[in-house]
Write a structure and sequence with these properties.
Blueprint lengths: L29 E3 L2 E3 L7 H16 L4 H8 L4 H15 L3 H17 L7 H19 L18 H14 L13 H7 L7 H17 L7 H12 L6 H8 L10 H42 L1
Antiparallel strand pairs: 1-2
Helix pairs in contact: 3-4, 3-5, 3-8, 4-5, 5-6, 8-9, 8-11, 9-11, 10-11
């Protein structure tokens, strides 16, 4: 497959030598599947300062709402997200890896457009974004040929060139704050002392439920995280009760209640839809099994 030439200069591909792009948020906590766990159930001043740093980093990568909405309308986006989540399970990637891959793809679409008729180019972009995310997060990322599954066959050179195009488009800024970094913070602030990996696992499920249905670039990662923890807790909240929870955090003045409540509602709605679809499938299989049994008796 012939891949179109990429119009950018070599100097734009060089990474700064000050190590700024290599900095991570792993120093102040133990990282497990993208989650940061703090040693104490209550946050001290250092932990609060760490959250403030995370929150300030969000602002540097926030995108204009109008552009983000345009990204959401792209026809192939949902299919690409489904493919990335499928590969997450196939390669057993961490949640952070899949989330970053979708983030890279959305940020790419904010600056560049792909011809709607070139479905292969969108799939190639998905592979490149997932490969870059895996290189950022996974200890042993797959080799490029390993991404060529089913109808996704591309040469390693094509994938590598698309990776370079993504890197150039994103200005080599691959480190992004994700909702998972705030899990322990919000669980503590919301007084979910029963919090455990089970709570975080449920919160992660809520995030991935809405990842395909809505463009999360419209929301701060902190807002998504707060909404996911609240949804995972099992408590059904009104806007007033949710606002009282948000007021208990140190970033309440900057964290918009409307964003958290909107995201929270979307998570609950998607969860209910999934349950309804699941019950319909169960009913359909039950009816099919009963009809099959009746036919056997008639025979």
């Amino acid at each position: 497959m012939e891949f179109p030439k990429i119009p950018f200069s070599l100097p734009s591909l060089f990474c700064p030598e000050d190590g700024s792009l290599l900095a991570t948020d792993k120093d102040d906590g133990e990282l497990d599947d993208g989650f940061i766990f703090f040693n104490d159930s209550s946050f001290n001043q250092t932990d609060e300062q760490y959250i403030d740093v995370l929150f300030s980093k969000e602002s540097s990568l926030l995108c204009h709402h109008l552009s983000a909405k345009e990204t959401y309308l792209l026809p192939d986006r949902s299919e690409s997200v489904r493919w990335i989540l499928k590969m997450k399970s196939y390669f057993r990637f961490g949640s952070q890896t899949a989330y970053l891959a979708v983030t890279y793809m959305n940020r790419f679409f904010l600056r560049r457009a792909i011809d709607e008729e070139k479905n292969w180019a969108t799939r190639l972009l998905s592979i490149a974004c997932l490969s870059l995310a895996a290189k950022m997060e996974e200890c042993s990322p797959p080799l490029l040929p390993e991404y060529c599954l089913e109808d996704s066959w591309f040469s390693s050179e094509s994938i590598r060139r698309m990776e370079l195009l993504v890197l150039d488009t994103l200005e080599w800024k691959l480190h992004s704050v994700t909702p998972f970094a705030y899990f322990s913070y919000f669980a503590s602030k919301f007084n979910f002392n029963r919090c455990s990996k089970d709570l975080f696992s449920k919160a992660t499920s809520f995030i991935f439920l809405v990842l395909e249905a809505m463009n999360l670039m419209l929301y701060r990662p902190s807002a998504i995280s707060a909404a996911a923890i609240l949804a995972a807790s099992g408590d059904r909240l009104t806007k007033t009760s949710l606002e009282s929870k948000i007021c208990s955090t140190s970033i309440s003045e900057s964290l918009k209640v409307e964003q958290v409540f909107s995201c929270y509602n979307a998570m609950i709605q998607q969860s209910n839809k999934k349950k309804k679809i699941g019950s319909r499938k169960t009913l359909f299989l039950s009816d099919a099994s009963e009809n099959c049994s009746k036919r056997r008796k008639l025979q």
